[in-house]
Automatic annotation (TrEMBL):
InterPro entries: AAA+_ATPase, BTAD, P-loop_NTPase, TPR-like_helical_dom_sf, TPR_MalT, TPR_rpt, WH-like_DNA-bd_sf. This is Putative ATPase. Residues 215-236 are annotated as: Disordered. Residues 224-236 have a biased composition (Low complexity). Residues 72-218 form the Bacterial transcriptional activator domain.
Length: 963
């Protein structure tokens, strides 16, 4: 009944006509007139809640609804269509398109008169659609085409019902738009399909009309449309709702300029647009939005509107209907004059269709929170702030701007501005405060307030407070969200339970970042579900992806809050164990790929819901080890702290040799020290001795001979005490290595032979035996006994081939190349060295560096100085990766000699000086003395080298060359 009265608002409707609408085909109740009276009472009771309710009059069996027709969707729709036609006649397609878009998007929703059935209502719906809706769509598409909005034309046609979009008018619009965007092949295909359809449906007239239209499009010259000027709009009350500007605002110039750009047309006039300014809690989104809004306010003649949507604060978020009422009121229109939300939205859109207005919608919870509201703000520049990215608005053309944390320079400038002389007096403390805040504007603001209230307290004291309790900053401030912890808590509460669990457990993550596979282990759930949760936290700026799509990082303050949460739960230990187990098993998979010939390590049982990473080849395995290096170290340290001794003990076993090969020997040394302490804590003597031995090997690689020998002796004492002959033999081998590298080659050979003899008496140690043979070959070569060296190489090759030890085979081939080099057999040497490099590739940095160095020596001996330089530079690269300082000095000497022979004398002197600095630093006095003699010879032989250049080289401080 109310629908019919609204349709005929202000006009009398007889009882018989109402009965015909409401109860067709004899379905009326026994007393339909009495039923109408009852309905009138119910409707009137419902309308009475409005401030100025419409009235329903009954007189002489006739009903009349007394209401402003403009407040009814259908009649407002017709008025909009009339206004649009008038605008089009005046050439104002911009206004026409805006008005019609509001009409078809907001006012005409769903099926008209949906509660009425029967032929009469169906006929009316058909009439309304054909005479009002379709012409409105047609006019809208015409205006959009005139404005060159062809992609919008295609989008709108695609959203229409099938029977509407296949009408001749809509087919023509789509065909024209396809031509306009140069999709000519799509246009031809679309024309052919529609032409065939029309002919098959026996509509030859439409088919012929479409063919003629297509032919015109194909031959028509494409000329730009003339620029049209919008007609003036009726004036409304100009609102100024912006809150006060941020007085202490500083920095963010790039973001402010970006906002200027995206809200401006080419001629500098304000553009209708939607900008989503998103960022993590406390980063300063509202401050930036309001500061920019005040700066830009004069550009918007339609005024400024503002509403805090409370998407993340205490209480319920502000709903869209409340915002519409607030904005209508600000524009001078009493909202209670229009009962429906759709009508109010249409009115708001109409009032804002004049001069461009600026709208700031602060703290939107998600896209749905504002989607409908934005439809009636289409003529405005809208700035949305949210902790979410609001990706759902991208389809409507919203521009996203991510507000990152303040840069260090911005934070320093901001703090200096408000602390003044105190910052000047304590520059180090001021810098520390900026760094501890990590770019979170809220934290900086609280620190300033904190220091202002305590003017005599040193800034250094605030630094200590910030370090110990950073989340407590501002806990005593007034109002919700005033402290760092409160701001983070609001974001946390807005997450669903799965997202909250991920956020909490991120506090159990020892590393600075995490990938999907590791996060899956941390949570104990499958990777697809984990990735969904991770991406959800990215969308709300609680995680970032600064490096790649597969890695996630959490800001330090957020991690502290997450750690607080997880430490209060019963999930922490289980999550830490799952993560440690994940890295142990994944690292073990790396070890099995890189060193397939070596015996595997006995691992603890795989924890439930942990899926380690598998690797297809050695390259992928090593890349994983490089990328996860920091996280593995962090997990080791956390496991040691938390008493997960099994993982502390096993992880160095499976990743240690890989890290040494990659040049991370310091990491391995630190891990082994932790493993020694864990073994002592659980009373495992064998593991303690093994880690001492491995640590000796690592310190040997850094040429720390005293430390290496100390750990070898410690290992041997324990192995003898527990009666482990294999362990004793291996410590003899380590002792041999130390003596050889220290220059005591004879003693090194003595211990090496003792170790080999012991190993040959044992079973299942062929891998270690083969390596011992290779190292004895190296020792004999250094001692000048090349025959013995070659003999041990042959034995080592035979063993390596028997057990399939490809890596050791590569090392032995390299050693044979060096033996032939010392014999002056350059062709044979080059062949062995080339085969060695083919096997070793870029792995085993120290060994590969020595092979490249030997190649350089061959080239130099053959007077191939450019090739010698190239090989020596390759050697230098690998020695740097392995942190082999003394070997770096040797490679630099070769480079210097090679470039000197190429008449690049100044460069040669510079390179010798670099080699000399390294040799002096690492205590290679004999090498340093030879370099000094060579420099003296060069200064005599090449007097044209500028004296001031060599002087400066002698005086230049050397930095970054040693550990």
């Amino acid at each position: 009944m109310f629908s019919v009265l609204l349709l005929r608002a202000g006009q009398p409707v007889g009882v018989d006509e109402l009965i015909g609408w409401m109860w067709p085909d004899g379905t009326a109740p026994e007393n339909p007139a009495g039923a109408l009276v009852t309905y009138r009472k119910r409707i009137t009771a419902g309308l009475s809640r409005m401030a100025d309710p419409p009235r329903i009059h009954l007189r002489n069996r006739t009903y009349l609804l007394e209401v402003d027709r403009e407040e009814i969707d259908f009649h407002e729709f017709r008025n909009c269509a009339d206004k649009a036609r008038s605008a089009t006649r005046h050439g104002d397609h911009t206004s026409a398109a805006r008005i019609l878009a509001a009409a078809v998007d907001v006012l005409w929703r769903g099926t008209p008169l949906p509660d009425l059935i029967g032929e009469r209502a169906a006929n009316w719906r058909q009439m309304a659609e054909s005479e009002h809706l379709i012409p409105a769509h047609n006019a809208l598409l015409h205006s959009l085409s005139a404005l060159n909005e062809h992609e919008e034309v295609l989008r709108r046609i695609a959203d229409l019902r099938l029977e509407i979009r296949t009408s001749l008018a809509m087919v023509k619009h789509r065909l024209s738009a396809l031509h306009a965007v140069h999709r000519f092949e799509d246009a031809v295909e679309f024309f052919r399909s529609q032409y065939r359809r029309m002919m098959s449906e026996r509509n030859p007239d439409e088919g012929d009309a479409l063919r003629r239209f297509h032919d015109e499009l194909s031959t028509r010259s494409r000329t730009p449309k003339p620029v049209v000027v919008s007609s003036p709009k009726p004036t409304v009350e100009t609102p100024h709702l912006l809150p006060r500007d941020i007085a202490d605002f500083t920095g963010r110039e790039d973001v402010l300029r970006h906002l200027d750009t995206v809200t401006s047309n080419a001629d500098g006039s304000p553009a209708p647009t939607v900008v989503v300014l998103s960022g993590q809690p406390g980063v300063g989104k509202t401050a930036v939005a309001l500061h920019w809004a005040h700066m830009a306010a004069s550009r918007f003649e339609g005024g400024q509107l503002y509403c805090d949507l409370n998407g993340f604060g205490e209480g319920e978020p502000v709903n869209q209907s409340e915002v519409v009422v607030e904005f209508l009121t600000a524009l001078g229109f009493p909202a209670d004059r229009i009962p429906s939300l759709a009508g109010r939205m249409a009115k708001l859109r109409s009032l804002l269709s004049g001069a461009r207005a600026l709208v700031v919608l602060d703290n939107a919870r998600d896209s749905e929170h504002v989607r409908t509201l934005l439809e009636c703000l289409s003529n405005c520049a809208v700035i949305l702030t949210s902790r979410h990215r609001l990706r759902g608005l991208a389809r409507t053309g919203a521009v996203g701007i991510l507000l990152p944390p303040l840069t260090y320079a911005e934070g320093k400038s901001w703090l200096a501005k408000w602390l003044g002389s105190r910052a000047d007096a304590e520059p180090t403390a001021a810098s520390d405060l900026v760094a501890l805040c990590g770019g979170i504007a809220l934290a900086l603001k609280i620190i300033v307030e904190h220091t202002h209230s305590r003017p005599r307290v040193a800034l250094a004291d605030f630094v200590e407070e910030m370090r110990s309790e950073p989340l407590s900053l501002g806990d005593h401030r007034d109002g919700p969200g005033g402290s760092v912890r409160a701001a983070l808590e609001q974001s946390y509460r807005a997450l669903n339970s799965a997202e909250q669990r991920l956020f909490r457990l991120f506090g159990a993550n020892a590393g600075s970042d995490i990938n999907v596979a590791a996060a899956s282990a941390l949570l104990g759930q499958d990777r697809a579900e984990t990735k969904w949760c991770l991406d959800a936290l990215v969308d709300v700026h609680l995680l970032t992806q600064p490096e790649s799509r597969d890695r996630y990082r959490m800001h330090d303050l957020l991690r502290l809050y997450a750690r607080e949460l997880v430490e209060r739960s019963d999930e922490q230990f289980a999550a830490e164990e799952r993560l440690a187990c994940f890295y142990l098993y994944s690292a073990n998979n790396v070890d099995r790929i890189v060193f397939p010939q070596q015996r595997g390590v006995d691992l603890p049982p795989l924890v439930a819901q942990v899926l380690p990473v598998e690797f297809a080849d050695e390259d992928k395995a090593l890349k994983w080890a490089v990328r996860e290096r920091a996280n593995i170290n962090a997990v080791l340290q956390r496991s040691a702290t938390r008493g997960l001794h099994t993982y502390v003990s096993k992880l160095p076993s499976v990743i240690g040799e890989v890290f040494v090969r990659l040049g991370y020997s310091d990491d391995v040394a630190a891990a082994l020290r932790m493993a020694i302490r864990s073994a002592q804590a659980v009373g495992n003597a064998f593991d303690e001795a093994s880690w001492h031995g491995n640590l000796a090997f690592v310190r040997l690689g850094r040429r720390d001979f005293d430390s290496a020998m100390e750990h070898v002796f410690a290992a041997r004492v324990i192995f003898e005490r527990i009666d482990d002959p294999r362990g004793v033999a291996i410590t003899d081998y380590y002792m041999s290595r130390v003596f050889v590298e220290r220059g005591e080659t004879a003693r090194g050979i003595e211990f090496g032979l003792r170790a080999l003899t012991a190993l040959q008496r044992l079973e299942n140690v062929k891998d270690v035996e083969t390596i011992a043979m290779f190292r004895l070959a190296e020792a004999y070569r250094r001692a000048g006994n090349l025959d013995a060296a070659a003999s041990f190489c042959r034995d080592a090759l035979s063993n390596a081939d028997r057990i399939g030890d490809v890596h050791t085979r590569g090392c032995v081939l390299g050693e044979l190349g060096m033996i032939h080099l010392e014999c002056g057999e350059y062709t044979e040497a080059r062949g062995y060295l080339t085969r060695a490099l083919e096997i070793l590739g870029n792995n085993e940095a120290a060994q590969v560096g020595q092979i490249h160095q030997a190649m350089a020596d061959i080239h130099f001996a053959l007077k191939e100085y450019q090739s010698a330089e190239r090989s020596a530079r390759q050697a230098l690269t690998f020695f740097r990766a392995a942190r082999r300082d003394a070997d770096q000095a040797g490679a630099l000497r070769t480079i210097a000699e090679a470039v000197y022979r190429q008449a690049r004398h100044v460069e040669a002197v510079e390179t010798w000086m670099l080699a000399l600095a390294i040799a002096d630093t690492v205590g290679e006095s004999a090498v340093a003395q030879r370099i000094r003699r060579r420099l003296a010879e060069v200064e005599v032989a090449v007097p044209d080298i500028p004296q001031e250049r060599t002087d400066s080289l002698h005086e230049r401080p050397i930095t970054g060359l040693t550990r």
